[in-house]
TrEMBL record:
Ranges of residues in domain FHA: 186-242
Listed PANTHER family: MICROSPHERULE PROTEIN 1
SUPFAM superfamilies: SMAD/FHA domain
InterPro entries for the chain: FHA_dom, MCRS1, MCRS_N, SMAD_FHA_dom_sf
Domain of life: Eukaryota
Protein name: FHA domain-containing protein
Organism annotation: Heterodera trifolii
Length: 287
């Protein structure tokens, strides 16, 4: 457009052909300002449908200097419903579960400057702060999961068994990735934007038919490693199908096939002894 006159001329003509309705529809998606949201929050949450549009129409007419000129009745109504769903209207009170998000924000930030301020004087969390609180909570959970599973890359052809840590229950070997499990129970699946699993199979290969919560691996008190299939599609362990909600004991050097992912499980024989001894001495201390 800047350096080609023919392209620039063609682009201008296409822009001039855009209808005014299309332009207004695009401009109506501009984020609402704090002043606009403050006025929209004044509309009661229990207003009837036929009165709601009347409220919005009067609001737009009386506050033309505040609202963007492209704001339509439909766009304002949709934003009002979003605020209502997250309980941000003036006549609404935050839900009880929102206290978890507020406490999370207090842990993230040093709120020493707010000491002595009445919590009733604080405004409820807006939409952006709520989204930040949720993402921070997800990150905190992911960090805890990473501490239970150490992921590594496979380089070359392994010639011998790895030296396992005393805290390792076992290792899952994939094509390109190893999962060193440092807990007696772990969730296996695929991670998404809002859901993370300790053993993320997306790091090792195609996951088109892998569930977010595909399997659960646990070591029992007698030292057996048991896998339960949580997904709809079967898992194959040494060629034997494991259907949904079924469980099977994993022998040493088991081959686990989940869709196109193939894993080899090597159990740490010393982990079970230390686990049982820890529980034994722990029970003796309690007695």
């Amino acid at each position: 457009m800047l350096y080609n006159e023919q392209t620039s001329t063609l682009t201008r003509k296409r822009m001039e052909q855009i209808s005014k309705e299309k332009i207004r529809a695009i401009q109506s998606k501009i984020p609402f300002s704090h002043e606009e949201e403050h006025l929209i929050r004044q509309i009661p949450s229990n207003v009837q449908q036929h009165l709601l549009q009347l409220h919005i129409d009067q609001l737009l007419e009386q506050n033309q200097q505040i609202f963007h000129h492209s704001r339509t009745l439909k766009a304002v109504e949709e934003h009002w419903r979003e605020l209502k769903n997250v309980r941000l209207l003036i006549d609404q009170t935050p839900q009880k579960e929102d206290t978890q998000e507020e406490s999370l924000l207090e842990r993230i930030y040093d709120l020493g400057s707010l000491v002595g301020i009445d919590p009733a004087d604080l405004l409820p969390l807006d939409v952006e702060e709520r989204q930040f609180a949720r993402s921070a909570l997800i990150t905190e959970r992911e960090t805890n999961d990473w501490q239970n599973v150490f992921v590594g890359a496979i380089t070359g052809v392994p010639t011998s068994l790895p030296n396992m840590s005393p805290n390792s229950m076992g290792i899952l070997f994939g094509r390109t990735t190893t999962y060193d499990i440092r807990d007696d129970k772990v969730l296996i699946g695929r991670s998404t934007r809002n859901h993370a699993v300790p053993v993320d199979l997306s790091l090792d290969g195609p996951i088109a038919h892998v569930s977010r919560k595909q399997a659960f691996l646990k070591m029992t008190e007698n030292g057996e490693c048991v896998m339960r299939n949580l997904g709809r599609r079967p898992i194959y362990i040494n060629g034997v199908p494991l259907l949904e909600n079924e469980a099977m004991v994993l022998p040493q050097n088991s081959i686990i096939e989940i869709s196109q992912i193939k894993l080899k499980f090597i159990k740490n024989e010393h982990y079970q002894k230390e686990l049982v001894q820890g529980r034994f001495f722990g029970n003796r201390k309690q007695q």
